[in-house]
Structure formats: structure tokens, C-alpha cells
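Service request form, structural biology core

Requester: graduate student, group of Dr. S.
Request type: structure prediction, single chain
Budget code: on file
Notes: please return the result as C-alpha cells.

Sequence provided:
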Amino acid sequence: MPWIAIFALAFALRALNVWLLADTPLARTPHGDGRVYLEWADAIRDGGFAGLWSGEVFYQAPLYPHLLAVFRSLFGESLFALRIAQALVGALTATLIGLATSRMVGRRAGIAAGVLIAIYAPSIWLDGLVQKSALVGFLCASTLTVSTVDSQRGRIALGVAVGLLTLTRGEARLFAIALAAWVFTTRGGRALVPYAAGLALTLAPVLARNVVAGGEWILTTSQSGPNLYIGNAPGSLGTYAPLVPGRGDARSEAEDARRLAEAAETRTLTAREVSSHWRGRAVETMRGDPNAALGRFARKGILALNAAELADTDDFTRAAESSFALRIGPGFGILLALAAAGAALATSDERRRLSVPALLAATQWLALVAFFVFARYRLPLALALAPFAGLSLASLPRVRGRALAAAAVALAIAHVPLEAARPERGRAAALVNEGVLLVDDDRPSEAEVLATQAVELVPGFFDAHRLQGLARLEQERPRDAIAPLERAHALSPDDWQVR
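Core staff response, request fulfilled:
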């Protein structure tokens, strides 16, 4: 069976990557959002079932940390074991992409698509991080697979799958709406009932929990307002920038979003009001300078299709230095070119059969344009392109000029030079994150070396200058710390820690 071979290939590469990166600083120590997810999971595990109904409205999507709590209860707290488990999930994702594509446009295309995701380097990397990506990929692949089942149970499963995806990535609500329109137009109005039932089965408990815990009717999370502002703030490059420099993990972002909103409104705000405040500021910014807003949207639209994997706390290129498993497979640019060729080659019937992955690709691209672009946020888009790429590989004997032209245009778009896509930016961010962990580990001299490298890569990088000053302070060299701290202060005068 080719599906077993695809699973084995995908798991072998992901497990190899986990093993090769096991001794690197960012793999040994929880950091960024990953640390927050682990702390959240431990709080769920230690608080028991009653704790699920206490606290506040969810700020971040809750499914991944709750599954982490189950995993850590059953298998302990080993990060290596967690990453191997996620490698298994990633292997299932590649297999399901192949199976879904096979049902849509044929076995040869399905095998090609499955192999492509099995060796797709960004997927191998993301499945090894303590992040939602492995779960997001699996749920995207599951949704595509069950969309091929034309029965009442299939439509219930479709609602459940996209509902679980929404509880992992909030912007999947766009995809859920698009799928409802697809079910209505292809299966009729009565088919919406089982689909809606599947959605309700997954989303209603979270809505009820938010009402009980926070007293507000919030379907999933209250994060959309701050995220909209972050991606559309004046000066935004189209990627993530924390509301307060140096405080980019989920816990700090939630605290800062509330604190800054309440200071601006001069009153205590509910979770919904905090989100509304930031949404209003984003809209005000767009209305104040619509040309700049359109420019940001255009930049994000191109950035979402760029070959670069935009870093946050981890960086693909930095990881690839230690893991040759990340250097042997194709990247996003190749996937995009193959998908463009496949779309050009597809017959009208094949395009109809590929309508669900097309909807996933379109809605995820729109979400990236509306908010901001990250490597891990782009994974659903890559998975949605895989069936089209598989079709192009299966159609190589009949490749024509139109398909080659489409691939060439896609490659050109993927390599448009953009400031946010410069590889040195991601590498510098990873160096700084490693340096922070070294400071915490009482190794400030090594942290200073990394901070200096980051400054050389990106001279205007606030976090690098701040880390350089902090590392020198930790070595009891306050005079040497003044210069980098002054540079950091010039870059971000409002940062109270640097002041």
C-alpha cells in the first residue's frame, strides 16, 4: 500500500529532525508560545475537570493545550516524547493529504501529493516545534479527507473536523463559513443540518465555557482584535510585532492588550471590550491612511506567497543548520509553482473536485492578508496547495506551455524581495531567543556572542541590542552595557525595562 510507505517516509524524516535538533538550545528549553502552552496544559492537568469551567474567556485557541494536558498526564513531561508524538501526527497528515487527493483527482496525484507533504521541509520543521502546527496540519488534512465522503455521517464529520480546526486556529471560522456555502451549493439546503450539527458539537461546549467563566458570549477566543491591530499598525511589515517590544509570547500579549486598552479607555474592560478596542484602533488606522492600509494588504498578500519561512520564536534557516532533514526537501516556492501548474492543467471536472482545497487556500490567504504572516500560520495554505501540486506531478506527460507559464509566474511571486522576508531577520530573531535562554541558564558571555551576531545581521533590531546590554549587565560590566541599551532605547523609547 502506498499510504503505508508515505506514512513511514514522513515519520522517518520528522523523527530524524527531532533527533538532530534535540541538543539545540531552542529544543531543550520551552520558550515563547510553547512555554505558555505547556504551563497552560499543566494548569489544566493539575486543576482537574472542574478547572475547565473557571478562569477567564479564552484568549488563545484552547484545543492544543488541552490535548497537551492529556498527553502529559499519560506520558509525562518529556519534550522529546512530545515531539515524536507530533512526528506521528505529521506523518498521518501527509498520508491523509495523499488519500484525500486520491479520492478527488486520482491515485497517481494522491501518491504524489502525499510524498510531497512527507518531504516538505517546512512541515517537517513545524511538526517538531511545541506549537499548534502539527495539530493544525492534521485537522486540515482530516477536513479535506472527510469532505470527500458524500453521506450524512460524512457531513457531520466535516462539521466536527472544521470545528476542531477552529478551536485550534481561530481564523478557520472563515473556512467553516465557506464550507457551509459549499455544502449548500453542492448537496442542497438539507445537507447543512448535519454539517451544522457537527460544528455545534465541537463549538458549543467552548461557547458555554466562555459564558460560565467569563460571562460573555464569545464563540472561541478574544484574540482577534489585538491580532488585527498588530497586522495593520502603522509601520507594520506584514509579520508579527508585539504590542510591547520584547513581550511577544501569548501570556504577555494578553496582559499587555488588556493593560494598554484599559489605560486608553480609562476603565476596566471585559475581554470582548478589549478585543473591540484594538479592532477599533485597527479600523481607525486604516481609515486615517487608506493608501497605506492598501499597501500593507498588498504586502501581506505577496508575503503570504513568499518562499521565505517567516520566523517568530524559532527560525527555519537556523534550524536547518543543525538538521539536514530540513535541507533535502522542497520549500514553499516549489510547492506554489507545482500547484500553479496543476491548477492550469486541471480540467473543469478536476477543478470542481478540488473546490474544498481551493476554498481552504483562499480563506487562509485572506486571513493572512487581514492579520499577519508567520511560517506556522501559512501551513494550512501549503496543505491546501498539495492536491494541485500532486495533480501537476501526475500530469507531467501532458505538461503544456500554459502550465509552465503559471509555474514561472508563481516562482516569480514567491521570490519578490520584501523587507520582512529577508532571511537574516529570522536568523537574528532565533539568535536572540537562544541568547535569552542562555542568560536564564547563567551563561551571559555566550548570550553576548549571539546578541552581537544578531546586531551584525540586523543593526536596527531592538531585541538584539537589549540582549547585548542585558548580557553585559549579567557579567557585571555596567559601563559596557550603556551603549547597547542606549541604542535599544533609541529604537523603542517606550520600553520601560530599557529605561
